[in-house]
Design brief:
Elements lengths: L2 E9 L2 E8 L2 H10 L19 H18 L3 H9 L6 E7 H12 L6 E6 L5 E7 L7 H17 L7 H9 L5
Antiparallel strand pairs: 1-2, 3-5, 4-5
Helix pairs in contact: 2-3, 2-5
């Protein structure tokens, strides 16, 4: 639920965290879904803008240039970057017999959605690193991805946008 202001208050029932909802229906549905007597955990995170479609398009233009220069598919190059940017994965421990089904389901989400199997200290289990594709990235993650690609392009003599243009591109937001 998106909120634009928070405060706290105290009364005879206890201490309350109050949040002003941007969308009243979301607030109502959230409160109606809460079951009396159950404990819940509230987490407040700074809302980040989603990546722009222009930034995504520029990413793929650069990947295409790298693919041409390196004679490797742009999909392979893209998937390599996804594993390098950080902050875009979860690691879960699952039963070994469930690992394949989880990995197959995860990778169906898109080109960048990848998995990596690692050993677990728990017998019969395996750790799976689940990488999210760039379609889920916020501004910071997309900036890291494009900056890595730009560095490699420059190292290979591939022309890229001026830093000022790139900053403008990453700060311009389009609808998803």
């Amino acid at each position: 639920m998106q909120v634009d202001a928070v405060r706290w208050m105290q009364d005879q029932d206890g201490v309350w965290v109050c949040a002003r909802a941007v969308y009243p229906l979301q607030a109502r549905n959230t409160c109606e879904a809460a079951e009396p007597g159950k404990a819940y955990e509230l987490e407040l995170k700074v809302r980040r803008k989603r990546r722009s479609l222009d930034a995504n398009a520029y990413c793929w233009v650069l990947l295409d240039k790298l693919a041409e220069k390196l004679e490797i598919s742009k999909t392979e190059i893209y998937r390599g970057y996804i594993r390098e940017i950080g902050g875009n994965s979860e690691t879960v421990c699952v039963l070994g017999k469930a690992a394949e089904k989880l990995c197959q389901g995860w990778t169906r989400n898109g080109i960048g959605w990848q998995t990596e199997r690692l050993p677990s200290k728990i017998e019969g289990c395996v750790n799976i690193v689940l990488y999210y594709g760039s379609s889920t990235y916020d501004t910071a993650q997309m900036s890291r991805l494009i900056n890595l690609i730009v560095q490699d392009c420059k190292a290979l003599g591939i022309e890229t946008m001026a830093p000022q243009e790139l900053d403008m591109l990453l700060n311009r937001w389009g609808g998803q």
